[in-house]
Please model this.
Amino acid sequence: MDEIEVERLIKISRERPLDPTTFIPWQLEPAAGDIFLPEFLTSLHGLEIYNTLTPAQKSELARHELVQVIASYAWGECLFCLFMTRHILTLPLDNIEHRFLLRELIEEFKHQEMFGQAIAKLGGQPVPQSGLHKFLGMFSNKYLPADYLFMGSVSVELVTDVYGTHARKAEHIYPVLKKMFDLHTIEEARHIIFTKSLLKTYAAKAGYIKRTLYSYVILGNILFVRTMYVKKEIYQRIGLENPDKVFKLAAKNFKQKFREKCLTDIVEFVDSWGGFNRATRWAWRWILGVKA
Ligand SMILES: [Fe+2]
Ligand SMILES: [Fe+2]
Model:
């Protein structure tokens, strides 16, 4: 791990903290014409059915799906905080990793509160995680060793960061969401630099089997995130007939969008330490559809 770099990150986090309560213009209500998510990130855009929706239905679809995305972030970050809290107990207080993770914990708790506030502002009702998501989330959090959990976290952070960047750069995005994603991108950038630096050490020591396992942990995490956003209940809420059928089409459509828009960085990262090999490449191609 590059200690000078990590000291620099700790210093920025301490000296230039961003406070969501003042950084975000919470007093602003969405104006006519404001959007909640770029159209191309919604699960139905690109399908024939999307063209049959009224403007109000399109806007509601984006609002519900955005709420689902940030509720998933908040839940995932809460799980990761649980792990970090346990992990720092194994490290002395003056250890650099311990000190960085304290900053990360402070920031992640702030993010969760910010996401919750944004959901309330949007009048959102997040659909709860499925039983399988809950089980996998809790199980891996409790039983996987630290290096695997950091691999999982960096993959989720890289993917969500790309998603946030698409959203905050979209024209006419509701200013509350723009500033929320701005703040998140700035702080997550530090977490990503730290975790990548930490993982370089782990990956350098890893042989074929471990690299294969790391690769699968990342793939599993991406699949986990991807399947948290598209929800049948949302199609019911916006008044679509046959939500089951719509869900099937949307899941397939979203898989393709997700691959095209969100996976470039993570594929590059996995490739950088040799995570694609004979045992993993087929799974990345088949399950995520990427050219690994
Ligand atoms: Fe975060
Ligand atoms: Fe983070």
Summary: The CA atoms of residues 20 and 135 lie 31 Å apart.
